[in-house]
């Protein structure tokens, strides 16, 4: 069997698995009104359909990535897909809103391992000269998901909102079968120890952060932080974060290894990833800006994102191609510059259909250089040979933390008005600008020797 077809089959399985997890974020939007009516929940509780998924996706990413280092990529990738499929069944069959959220948590935990494990498999099986393009292909998954998610959701919703989740079951079965046949089973030496205390502290910190930020009222001076429910939640988030870091410094096998953050390059990559996560969360509110600011029909508003996701789909492989020729730091800087320009255009230009589409294209092109290959490539190279999976988990943790913080923050800033959402995007644009300045400190990692780059996985 030749190497090229084998690599193509590996990439196809990885692409399909990551797409399933990404699609379940994009496809759930059309189901929210039906879920709200079915369980009689208010909009604040309904938002946890998104927040619970992101929170447990974040927890699953480093845990399953670390498990894959010790138990093998194939077994853990298949395990994650199986958990995702079981969670999908649980959501569709849930008799209560609380059990629906439990199913979403199980879905997300399983899906969380797909992207970091896929990136580690690419690093171990794809030759160096084609690695950037392969990572770019995996990165394009999120553009594909946001392009087809609303359409697929609209097609399935007439048959019942449950079918938006049940459709995952046969897809998961197909990915499990393909993964078992094609994925490598590389393992790292040594025993595996789970950092259960660290995971609990991290979950507590993030959940408290989302709870507190989501209750900030921008109409009240100081955002109402002095209110007990807001202030105590944010204080709990800070205390839990401090406990988490103390645990990580002492844990034999920490969830977030302090040595990873001991690298100035990885700290910088993590800060950039957090800022990118903020932008991803802000994109969720673009259809609402179109509805409130342009008078667009709600059914049409999601389709106004097609220029943005179209450029993301095309741009992610192009960013991988550029990475192979000019290096990751340059691609990251270009991505940050384009993203900051697009956010500024959204916030400052008069809101018209032309400015909406134009700013969206700039953001799509910018995110092409940030969501796919470059940040993951830098993390793979700086994390070290035996911490590839843990490094990818760390990167996903920073991205997801930015998503959680950004969704809560811009939702509170919007307060139901398009102008508030645009102000939030301007703040995010300023933070991306700061990340652009900081990115001048990125250094191109040393390129491994040819025999290491092309070494086959056992």
Write the layout of secondary structure elements.
Elements: H1 3-26, H2 32-39, H3 43-46, H4 48-71, H5 73-93, H6 97-112, H7 114-125, H8 128-139, H9 141-156, H10 163-166, H11 168-182, H12 196-214, H13 228-250, H14 258-261, H15 264-283, H16 286-294, H17 298-301, H18 306-326, H19 328-348, H20 353-368, H21 373-383, H22 388-414, H23 418-438, H24 450-453
Helix pairs in contact: 1-6, 1-7, 1-9, 1-11, 4-5, 4-6, 4-7, 4-12, 4-22, 5-6, 5-7, 5-11, 7-8, 7-22, 8-18, 8-21, 9-18, 12-13, 12-22, 15-21, 15-22, 15-23, 16-23, 18-19, 18-20, 19-20, 19-21, 19-23, 21-22, 22-23
Task: Describe, in plain words, how this protein is organized in 3D.
With 458 residues, the chain is an all-alpha fold. The chain folds into 3 domains: 1-188, Up-down Bundle (Growth Hormone, Chain: A), CATH 1.20.1250.20; 196-250; 259-447, MFS general substrate transporter like domains (Growth Hormone, Chain: A, Up-down Bundle), CATH 1.20.1250.20. The protein has 24 helices and no strands. The chain has helices at 3-26, 32-39, 43-46, 48-71, 73-93, 97-112, 114-125, 128-139, 141-156, 163-166, 168-182, 196-214, 228-250, 258-261, 264-283, 286-294, 298-301, 306-326, 328-348, 353-368, 373-383, 388-414, 418-438, 450-453. Helix 4 (48-71) runs parallel beside helix 7 (114-125) and helix 5 packs antiparallel against helix 6 (97-112). The longest helix is centred in the last third of the chain and has 27 residues, at 388-414. The chain is globular, with a radius of gyration of 21 Å. Mean pLDDT is 79; it is low at 448-458.
């Amino acid at each position: 069997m030749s190497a090229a077809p084998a690599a193509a089959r590996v990439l196809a399985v990885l692409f399909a698995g990551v797409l399933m997890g990404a699609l379940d974020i994009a496809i759930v939007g059309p189901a929210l009104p039906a879920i709200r009516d079915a369980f009689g929940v208010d909009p604040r509780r309904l938002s946890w359909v998104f927040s619970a998924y992101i929170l447990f996706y974040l927890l699953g990413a480093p845990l399953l990535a670390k498990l894959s280092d010790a138990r093998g990529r194939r077994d853990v990738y298949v395990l994650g897909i199986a958990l995702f499929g079981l969670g999908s069944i649980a959501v569709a069959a849930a008799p209560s809103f609380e059990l629906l959220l439990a199913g979403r948590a199980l879905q997300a935990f399983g899906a969380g391992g797909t992207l970091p494990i896929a990136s580690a498999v690419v690093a171990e099986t794809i030759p160096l000269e084609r690695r950037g393009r392969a990572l770019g292909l995996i990165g394009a998954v999120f553009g594909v998901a946001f392009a087809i998610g609303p359409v697929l959701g609209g097609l399935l919703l007439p048959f019942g909102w449950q079918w938006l989740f049940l459709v995952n079951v046969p897809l998961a079965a197909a990915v499990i079968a393909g993964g078992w046949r094609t994925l490598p089973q590389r393992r790292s030496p040594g025993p595996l120890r789970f950092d259960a205390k660290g995971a609990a502290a991290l979950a507590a910190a993030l959940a408290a952060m989302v709870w507190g930020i989501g209750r900030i009222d921008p109409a009240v001076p100081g955002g109402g932080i002095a209110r007990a429910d807001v202030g105590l939640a944010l204080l709990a988030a800070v205390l839990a974060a401090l406990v988490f870091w103390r645990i990580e410094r002492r844990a034999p096998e920490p969830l977030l290894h302090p040595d990873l953050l001991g690298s100035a390059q990885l700290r910088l990559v993590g800060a950039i990833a957090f800022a990118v996560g903020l932008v991803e969360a802000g994109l969720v509110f673009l259809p609402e800006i179109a509805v409130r600011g342009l008078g667009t029909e709600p059914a049409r508003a999601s389709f106004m994102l097609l220029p943005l996701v179209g450029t993301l789909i095309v741009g992610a492989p192009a960013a991988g191609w550029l990475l192979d020729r000019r290096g990751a730091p340059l691609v990251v800087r270009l991505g940050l510059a384009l993203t900051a320009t697009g956010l500024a255009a959204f916030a400052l230009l008069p809101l018209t259909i032309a400015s909406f589409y134009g700013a969206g294209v700039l953001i799509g092109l910018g995110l092409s250089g940030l969501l796919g290959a470059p940040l993951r490539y830098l993390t793979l190279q700086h994390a070290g040979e035996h911490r590839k999976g843990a490094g990818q988990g760390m990167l996903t943790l920073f991205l997801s933390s930015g998503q959680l913080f950004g969704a809560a923050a811009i939702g509170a800033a919007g307060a139901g008005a398009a102008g508030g959402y645009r102000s939030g995007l301007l703040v995010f644009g300023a933070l991306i600008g700061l990340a652009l300045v900081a990115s001048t400190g990125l250094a191109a990692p040393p390129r491994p020797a040819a025999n290491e780059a092309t070494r086959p996985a056992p």
